[in-house]
Amino acid sequence: MSGRSTIDQPFAGTASDQVADILATGRGDITTVFLSMSTRHPEGDDASYLRWHALDHRPEQYRLSGLRASLRIVSTPACRAVRAAADPRFDPVDHVMTYFFEDTAALDPFNALAVALRDAGRMPYLLPSVERGVYAVQDRAADPAAKVGADVLPWWPAKGIYLLIEMGGNPPAGLVDMSGVAGQWHAGAAPSAFSGAETGQQITYLFLDGDPVETGERLKPVLQNRWDTTAVRPLLAAPFYVTIPHAWARYLP
């Protein structure tokens, strides 16, 4: 089934990834993903945290020349109910923040900015951290029916993200063909002083145009078959909603 089954009016023309002249104009320069996973707010004030992060903290990051894109996603109770896997280490994750960088050299100014904002009294909200990891982008794919190329998926307005954290194995195959999935990025843990990810740990982002909960239900048996028939070990397989600006309470843990 094509991932574009959730779009009523398919777009015209040839998909970008099938047109050499489009790809020749640029493939994007993101090589590094910084992934920060947290639990919910200890006092249940997740909406206030999301408001602060979106209006105060996140915009400041774009003064960094090495930052190319960012993405925040949230797990709701309905999302939790359809998780296909959750190792005890990652089961507490309800908030995920992702920064897409040009290269690992951008992480030093990224950290310096965090220190400067903290010293200026601009870090009043901190969620309990589960893990912060640095990953090297290894593979990209997009459903041709989506038209946009895999290179630009971080800027594509997804309804949600299905996040896979796994140990070992190759990037998932065939998921981009499923209803509700527009594309995927796959990355492997990279050595970094800013990372707590284990060697061999891998992440896959499925960019969704379908409802994350409904798409998560469809993905369950496919992912289980992947784990049953390969040496890949799942650590987290979970749908998340993308936060909606100025509707901070729309999706909460």
In short:
With 253 residues, the chain is an alpha+beta fold.
Account of the 3D structure:
By secondary structure, the protein is of the alpha+beta class. It has one domain: Alpha-Beta Plaits (2-Layer Sandwich), CATH 3.30.70. It has five helices and nine strands, in the order αβαβαββαββββαβ. An eight-stranded antiparallel beta barrel has the order 1-4-2-9-6-8-7-5. The longest helix has 18 residues. The chain is globular, with a radius of gyration of 18 Å. The two termini are 31 Å apart. The N terminus is likely disordered.
Order of helices and strands: HEHEHEEHEEEEHE
Count the DSSP helices.
Answer: 5
Beta fraction: 25-35%
Class from secondary-structure proportions: alpha+beta
In CATH terms, what is the architecture? Answer: 2-Layer Sandwich
CATH class: Alpha Beta
| Strands, total number | 9
What is the CATH third-level topology name? Alpha-Beta Plaits
Q: What is the mean predicted local confidence, pLDDT?
A: 95
Q: What is the C-alpha radius of gyration, as a whole number of Å?
A: 18 Å
Name some characteristics of this structure.
alpha+beta; eight-stranded antiparallel β-barrel; 29% strand; 22% helix; 253 residues; Alpha-Beta Plaits
